Amino acid sequence: MAENCRVSITCVYCMLAQRNPPSPAVFPVVRCVLRDLTGFHWLQDNRIKTAKYNAFTFLPTNLFEQFQRFANAYFLVLLILQLIPEISSLSWFTTIVPLVMVLAITAVKDATDDYFRHKSDQQVNTRQSQVLIKGMLENEKWMNVRVGDIIKLENNQFVAADLLVLSSSEPYGLCYIETAELDGETNLKVRQALTVTSDLADDVSRLADFNAEVICEPPNNKLDKFTGTLYWKDNKYSLDNEKMLLRGCVLRNTEWCFGLVIFAGLQTKLMQNCGSTKFKRTSIDRLMNTLVLWIFGFLICMGIILAIGNTIWEQRVGSDFWTYLQWNKLTSNAIFSGFLTFWSYVIILNTVVPISLYVSVEVLRLGHSYFINWDRRMYYSPKDTPAEARTTTLNEELGQVEFIFSDKTGTLTQNIMVFNKCSINGKTYGDVYDEFGHKVDITEKTPCVDFSFNPLRDRKFRFHDSSLVEAIKLEEPLVQEFFRLLALCHTVMPEERNEGELVYQAQSPDEGALVTAARNFGFVFRSRTPETITVYEMGQPVTYQLLAILDFNNVRKRMSVIVRNPKGQLKLYSKGADTILFDRLDPSNDELMYTTSEQLNEFAGEGLRTLVLAYKDLDEDVFDEWMKQLLFASTSLDNREENLGALYEEIEQGLMLLGATAIEDKLQEGVPETIACLTLANIKIWVLTGDKLETAMNIGYSCNMLRDDMNEVFIISGHTSLEVHQELRTAKERIMGPSREKFSGDPDTEKTDIYSSDSVFEETIISEYALIINGHSLAHALEADLEQILVDVASAHIGVGISGQEGMQAVLSSDYSFAQFRYLQRLLLVHGRWSYHRMCNFLCHFFYKNFAFTLVHFWYGFQCGFSAQTVYDQWFITLFNIVYTSLPVLAMGLFDQDVNEQYSSRYPNLYRPGQLNQLFNKRKFFTCTLHGVCTSFILFFIPYGAFISAVRGDGSQISDQQAFAVTIATSLVIAVSVQIGLDTNYWTAVNHFFIWGSLAVYFAILFAMQSDGLFNIFPNQFTFIGTARNSLDQPVVWLVIFLTTVVCIMPMVAIRFIKTDCYPTQTDKVRLLQQATRRQGPQEQNLRRVRRTSSRRSAYAFAHQQGYGELITSGKNMKVTTSSTSTCPLSSPEGRPGTRGAPDETTTEGETNTTGFKREFDQNKDMMVEDLEAR
Hints:
Low-confidence stretches: 1-42, 739-765, 785-794, 1084-1105, 1116-1175
Distance between the termini: 101 Å
Number of strands: 39
Strand order of the largest sheet: 18-17-29-28-27-26-25-24-23
Number of helices: 37
Structural class: alpha+beta
Helix content: 40-55%
Mean pLDDT: 79
């Protein structure tokens, strides 16, 4: 029967909706039974679908989605109104052409995206897997794999579904996987089958007879957690995440493995994590939505005014023509005429609501994203990693950042740990002394210790104190025990690719550095099994029996192993944070503990990460009893973690202190300079780290966030909400008190200029503060909205990922990514500021030209009896926004620069307008719309007044409506183009081409559409026959156009000249400086380093996540990467910090072993705006 069946899983719970997950205490029952191949087709298959549309649903669904946008729905209503002859004086194509263009562009984009989703789905669904069917392995498409199938995977194959590992080609049922598609991590991870199923090996007949029952959790999106139990042959076996292969993983370094499908298709954890992403909107997006509603309200008001005017005009004047026009009784009603006129003017004035605004904004954002991607100065050549804008919706928001929340490890630091110093039995190793006994600085030229005596050494390892090697060679017991502990107490997995060529796969860089140090000093960790560890001690292989691993977690903050050496002695080796292990030392270690603590203070002053090592000899009887309790606790279902923790605590008492290690995690290049520059831009920086308080302070000093010359550094360390509340209130009172006294109650002012406001260069900081909150206090601070200090944590919504040693997980979930923290300065101060500046200029000119174009109809209404007659030719109305003026304003929005990139970085205070939202806000919108209204007034009344008495060269009149329309249209296009040209700060070939090209296209289309040829073909559509050539050949018309353009432009030129001359902004001053020095090139600022010392203790050198000891003891290879958790933030002052250095006596020129710096300007290069003006 087995040959005609294959294994299946019948899930009683699998069809429950994900939105209603079970209680955590309730587990679904999954039964594993034999089934016929043709039955159970209702089981979950493995097909996935991420595409939104198909050939039949695309058009209706996409149109429905697009018409949910207010602007599109509004123009659809207008199109319907235009089909009513009684109220429409415009042809339908004036609305449908731009509407169709907008809909088509969006539809093409959506269709393209969905096509690639379909292509990806098809590629994935048709992949092949080997499935056990009728007792034989057969190729099957992924989409046909079902829950309950047994699948064979081979090396480098993707995992088709969420599988329970049954057996593999590796010893102990191990298999290695790469999870880059799930979490971005590139280091190999290990999974292991249950011992009872690993015996099945690759015996197909035994696998076909496999029958079991599984109780497991329902489908969920937790990648790091799986809970279940396997019932087979009257026994039960615990299942966890280390028994599972998740869909999306790749099998590596394993010839084959068999797995049982637990979750398939949309129920897999990978697909459960593929929910719809939250759409992020910028502040400008929200403002635009509000402004569009305002504009719509303004349109309604204009329609009402003109409708009332029509009603009054019809009653007083128009009634005289009713008989002549032979209108019916309903049409001849003045009030009804006003009602129809209202809708007519809503149609005519509809261009004041910008239909193309959102599409134009998306085009600009896409272009700005490409500029970030193409920036070679943000390209990291060592790893071939360019910057990447992974979203196109937040570019201008990069120019408005006020707070930065940053991780520490791998973000500010390189996450490359180096064994720097150590203390063994109270003696420090790692320093270098000259012949006079004076300590000397270690440089690249300092000779390294010769490790040639060790053939298994790591040739990249560098250490400079030869006395430690001498102690090893003299076989000092404590020194050997020190490195023996480092070689045994860890969860590292070795990989020996060639004889003697060891590669360590470490849970964290800290562990890798410590094991590598032990390797170089003669204690080489060579191999391990679930029960043993083999170490080559000074060239001799020694195998230790591994009895227990007391794993690390965030509560214990330490790790221990219990081993039996070849002599039969039981040893417990432990390493962890000094504050943890010192409390568990035997009282006889008090003197050594005091000495070691002083040495730890010295290490901390140098910014090193410290770790304390201790050991203990165990009694055989005590250990046996303890192991029985451990076995019982590890198999219990209730309070397992608490029971294990209590047992670990019991045996880790009475330790003997060995010493301490000091590891250096160097800052990335340019971190202090970048942070100083960002603080000058008034950006407040918080660093969140999983380390303890001392490490947070050390990293703060080393990266220039904390400085000795700050007024005060506040430490929030309360244990209750009330204590935290009080500490925060006290800090705020201390910070705000001096400011109120100094600045008469202005709480936001913490600095003032020592020179006049005309100075771009000099300013001093009156008060500088920093705030540090430790982990448990932060929890209380986030629960209560205390003093609004942490209110901006929730509003942080721009994710920036740095691709470093910790993998790509941060990059995969980020909006922007690059390889080095220092690139953040350029992303914000250059690309972000430019994007904000360009977007604001674009919006101002967009609204300006639309109001100038549309409101001419409003003024004309008062001259045409409010008859809803249009001024322009209908084709001009159609093409104005999509052809004549679209490209010049887009070119400004894409390429304009108020100042170049060097000055944007050199003067960070230029970033301030974006934070204050000064370049585009409601007031700015009102100003640019008022400018448009005034321009429309000028555009209408100057030609209107001139044409009253204007004549041709032969004396005939030219004051016909069509010539009047051409004159206004030409004046409008020229005035808008000139205005854009005057406001363009940075000219490119594209700007020239678009501006002059748009003017040329306007005249070409104008003469073409008013030619005899088109009139003969379409007499009803092109009624302005010959108007262009008959009017534009008259000098008086060109004089009117010139006069109108000058009057439109000159007031704004005069206003801006006066503002720049009398009330210059910081940007105006820097631009003037840039123009004066453009031939000399940019002058770089001189950054001077300042030596700093600190007595803060650095923290334990562990990865801050649950350890992997259980995996080691169960036979699982530990190949994992580091992840950091954030518990302790570090803040810059609330006001803008300065960059003052330490006192002069601590400042030396050219120091390199430093952690802070101050800014110093070359006095010969300082140039004030007054000097430039005088020149």
